[in-house]
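Next comes this protein.

***
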Amino acid sequence: MSPRVAVLGLGAMGLQMATHLAHDHEVTGFDVDPERLRLAGLAGVSPAASPGEACAAADVALVGVRDAAQLEAALFGPSGAASTLAPDSVVILTSTVGLEPAQDAAARLAQQQVHLIDAPVSGGPVRAGKGDLLIMVGADPAALDRGRSVLEALSSTLTVAGPRVGDGQMLKTVNQLLCGVHTAAAAEALSLAHALGLDLDATLEVLGKGAAASFMLADRGPRIAQRLTGEAPELRSRLDVISKDMGIVARLARQAKVATPVAAAAEHLYLLGEALGLGAEDDSVIATVMHAPTQESGS
């Protein structure tokens, strides 16, 4: 029988993962936003009033939260998941929260014989809904065996980074360094193209066929182009999330004593966007920080 799954956090990624799992699993979900719970219910996910209620009968709890503070609340806050998780159940942490928060959560859950699989994901909401994610795992083999079927249901590429909780977080941090830099570079390039009067759709088509192509350009590029031409794109990846991830990159790089000047420049751009009150916007909005809306081509 398929394991019973609780999904804690039904944001852009969590709702898509819960929806996909609900095709073959009994899935219960929790989110602080009632609208997200309503959407989950329409997708075949049973809504719960708290993380603890969602996990009361779960074999596997999948956590998709924004940051370490939300992880703490979901697992160990009032009516948190830890209050009801049974011994030998598994928590799959799909979020990028950093090395120390993941290790701390694992140690605390281990005290009640609950396993944690460090399994940050990459690929975006569309791929999450298709079970087409890249998942980077850090877990001991026994814990991984307990959660493997759920991980395989969500992924097209399941990579074991190492046997320790935190190995997945470290590999995902390296991944996010590139994602953050590539997103900033895409915004910069398309802002220049727009200021020069180039057709942005044609520009994206050309760039996507040459050496400048990247996943982030293909994914973010159309939304950046919408921003630059005055449209509001769909919210798919919040600015404050990529800013948070680049902060994790900076902290880990300092610990490792590795210089990351390009990542630092990208992080400062995202921090500027947050300072301008754009944190809850899709991260394509960063192009508006680079490009003055009133600037005319050729001026």
